[in-house]
Amino acid sequence: MPVRFGYSEATHLLRRAAARGRKEEAQKLAEMGLEAAVDSLLRDPVPAPAYTTSFTRNERGPQLQQITRLWLSHWLTTPTPAAERLALFWQGHLTSEYRETRGAQGIDFYNQLATFRTLGYGPYGQLLRAIAKDPVMLLYLNNAESRKEHPNENWARELMELYTIGPGNYTEHDVQEAARAFTGWTVRLKGNQRPREAPATVPFEFVFRPQWHDPGPKIFMGRSIRSGDDVLDILIAHPQTYRFVGRKLLAFYLTPEPPQALVEEGARVLRDGGTRELLRWLFTREEFYAPQYRNTIVKSPIEYVVGLLYAAHQTEPILGKDDEKAMGRTLAAFAAMGQVPFDPPNVKGWDGGMSWLAESHFLARLNLIGALAGKEKGIDLEVFMDGASGPLSLVKPEAQLL
């Protein structure tokens, strides 16, 4: 049965795919028809502007402000915003915490974001292999210091528990053997520069140190292996990886508790075709537009701010006056709402859901409405929320929902 795709469905698609949109964009998608509209939203991402800084390696707070402004201003202006919402998903799934990642600079996190953007639509295995050698991840989960004498188990454990097959599908022995396999996977500054002398624009890069690696035979999930690549091969081939990741993608794009039948079907699409194909499959299904799945996902603070500022025709993620303290205030607002970009609270990422609407977080959201004072006549909320009838609608529950 063909999916009915009119203006109402187009607004829903824009909210879910891109977390931003305006009336004329929804009208254009509706005129294109469903499949063309979906293909338009899922086209290859436009690269973000390059990052540079004059701050030192010790001035990480200002660097966080810079990369946050650069990313969110790109999200507000790019013709491919769906790629940025997907990058936000990967940031909360393949997690690294800015404040806890010793030594990593703004450039390293910005490079990791670029990896999420450029590889995020493709095969999950390809993205996972890149993140396994990503300097931020290696530093965050301590694999950069893992040697054969004392293998560090953090990366090996989270790789299975949070990034691939999920809890209950591996043993402690598997963690120990995987940790041995990843010894020697570490980082150095590009050009082999010294951290004390290098500017903050010099990123870390992956390096394999054979002298740190445990070359002996290992048994992982019943298979004989030697290297970290062998571990990745096994996990990427495992059907449970696609059920686990596919369920999280459906929770992010469809509903917090996706039906098991859709999870199973989505897992097959993800395994055979990659993330873009999973999203195309989902966005062209009748279930995606069903009333029971509309307004079931709470906007994260980042999605709320991006959607609201875009509705107000704003191109910079500035809340209030644009001065030298603007991004400091903006990051403080994100912290008050419970979501600082690039800095999830722990390795599990952001809890999301109703936790975004805890009393203090919700009040911080409502305080943002004041930042739009004077822009009421130009604000276009038709895509931002269902049933919008002017700025006063922002106090309604629907304003918090995708």
Automatic annotation (TrEMBL):
InterPro entries: DUF1800. It comes from the Bacteria. This is DUF1800 domain-containing protein. The lineage of its organism: Bacteria, Thermotogati, Deinococcota, Deinococci, Thermales.
